[in-house]
Amino acid sequence: MHLAELLESSGCPLCRTRLREARRHLGSVLYESVNDPAFRDRLLAARGFCRAHSQQLLAANRAGAGGSLGAAILFGSVIRKRLAELKKVADGRGRPMDRDLELARRPASCPTCEQVESAQASAVSRLLDRTSDEHWRLALAAAELCLDDLLLLAAAADRRSGRWSEVFGAQIGRVEGIAARLEGFAYNSSYDRLHLMTDAERRASDEAAVLLGGTVSEAQAR
């Protein structure tokens, strides 16, 4: 049902999978793990959340509790850890300082990213498995997949299978349609041709943004 919902909704189904899983995981962290010493230890070992999920954690805290206490507690622990790294860089000299700087610049091993990647892998596998069913195959062929996720599916698919070829061919046709509507929009934007512009051409830039940039928010996906 979860996959069927995603395919029936607007926006890229795999982008939506990542959005949902990030929201679920961050909500769980705020509800269950802020004062859990084991989780706090894992978060410190990971050096915190990534940039995007740090912002989403704060937004989820404010949306759910109307404040930011949970986020403040977690951020405080992480910043103390990162501050120690900064001080080590500041106190260093020569090659040791370069090494400390390189270590301090490492991206955090974000626990939410790990959950999101696991959910994505599961969704990719299940979607490809379901291409054996004609109804699922047609739904995936018509889905508003972003370009990155179309290629992600292509990389995981058995390209010898005619089932995937059918989906991929339909998706290429969808991309061609967006390109044609963008060109039509640009051509008909001239003052003397405005009356020729179609609603589909007006929507083309929004379609192109999802194709190239993915579905980045639940609001965008509605």
The unreliable regions are none
Number of domains: 1
What fraction of the residues are assigned to beta strands by DSSP? Answer: under 5%
- Order of SSEs: HHHHHHHHHHHH
What is the helix content? over 70%
Structural class: mainly alpha
Shape: elongated
Count of runs of 4 or more consecutive helical residues:
12
Number of strands: 0
Structural Rg: 22 Å
Q: Report how far apart the termini are.
A: 18 Å
Oligomer: single chain
Query: What is the makeup of the main sheet?
Result: none
The chain-level mean pLDDT equals 92
Structural description of this entry:
There is one protein chain. This protein is mostly helical and 222 residues long. It has one domain (2-221). It contains 12 helices and no strands. Helix 2 runs antiparallel to helix 7 (111-129), helix 4 (51-65) runs antiparallel to helix 5 (69-91) and helix 5 runs antiparallel to helix 6 (94-104). The chain is elongated and about 65 Å long. 22% of the residues are buried. The mean pLDDT is 92.
What's the SSE blueprint?
Elements (H helix, E strand, L loop, with lengths): L1 H7 L4 H21 L3 H10 L4 H15 L3 H23 L2 H11 L6 H19 L4 H9 L4 H10 L5 H27 L10 H15 L4 H4 L1
Spell out the key features of this protein.
222 residues; 0% strand; elongated
Summarize the structure.
By secondary structure, this protein is mainly alpha-helical. The protein has one domain (2-221).
